[in-house]
User: Fold this.
Amino acid sequence: MDKKDEHPNSLEAKPTDLVIANINVTKEYLRWNGFFSHWTESELMQENTPREAIWKKNKAILWYYPTSQKKYKTPLFLIYSLVNKPFILDLLPGESVIQSFVKNGFDVYLLDFGIPRDEDSDITVDHYIVDYIQRGVTRALHHSSAEKISIVGYCLGGTLASVYTAISNEPIENLILMVAPIDFQYFPSYDQWVAALRAELINVDDLIDYYGVIPAEFVKFGVRLLTSPVYLSHYLSLLNRADDPNYVLRWRLFNKWTKEHIPFAGGAMKQLINDFVKENKLIKGELMIREKKVNLSNIKANLLVVSSNLDHLVPKEQSIPIIDLVSSQDKTYKLLQGGHTHLIVKDNKLPDYLEEWLPQRSDPL
Amino acid sequence: MEKNEQVELYKAIKLTGFKVEQELNNWIKDQINHTKFVQGTNIAGKYYVHVMKCVQNSMGHLFSNLNIPSKQDVTNIGKLVLQVEEKIDKVEDQVLLLQQKVEGLENG
Assistant:
């Protein structure tokens, strides 16, 4: 949000604006009104790209977003993270990632894992991979009658996507990993915590078992601690551009997303901490999913790895190592400018990093 | 105040705010990233879990005597529902597989 260009009229007063002592009062009124609208106006309702639920399991829903002008045979299967709601992928008409895919001729499937409750405490990464993702992909392939599918994983969803692709039997043509942590050896901060965890000086299993499902507030606190324990500067970004109603709308929706973390299933959290962070089993080829060894060299799909230069949550060092471990012949790496979230597009165009890469590899009709 | 200055002021406030926030965050991270802090949190966490488990067990006994279902009882029912759903899912998978095979046979 903070890296956007100034809107073109920001320096100029319109003829109808009230200007007193060189201060554009109209603009200032708009600015402060827009700034306080965050607290004074009712919660925003999001407008989704037309979609249809084609499969449900527990709290998970497999959404289908049909394209009206299909241009590619290979549909997209999006896997979102486990810590936030996936509505960031469909934030605003005209600036939605999903809408941009649909408008550019792709059929899209989105696996929304839903919000875990107390009865989901035993759900592990194995469940997410086999019972949710693999089954979801099978349903999407059957529903679309496609011969191949592209998997797109965002953040932790990218980690799950790479694990799934390594053990899958399904015909995966492309694997796109967006800011996905794969190699947990490198941590940009809290090295003492990670060292203590690896030396078994701390054990969080009892705490996780006590909660069963980690409350959303704890998840939010953990993410904040990793990125920005003090997080107020986004209000200054809002103040800077609050006279632009479109910016205020986008800011409010984005802010809603950043605050709406979801609870985390305890079983999956323990596995992530122990197998991924503590022992880094995925990169070492020691991870087991339902008694199947996860070997990243089994990945033969065309691979696109995307990371960001200012990402404090998933630095590029955590994403890059997968490139050397897969067997794919077609491998691309893109480093974007900015932070962790690159999920807003302009004018329904495909994001720059996918504009050429994806259509060329999606079997045009 | 010039019009340009008006815009630049907010931009300057934003940039200064970002800088201060970043420095503050780095300081907080440095303070937390100490072995003693890690050990202290670990011990505090263990005590917290022990105490809360005792409270939870006592509440379970109390609810049981009062004939009121506890949160754990509700969770257990939820888990049973999930087990049933899992079985239905497996049947559905089989039907899907059979359907694909029949379609394959029909298409020759």
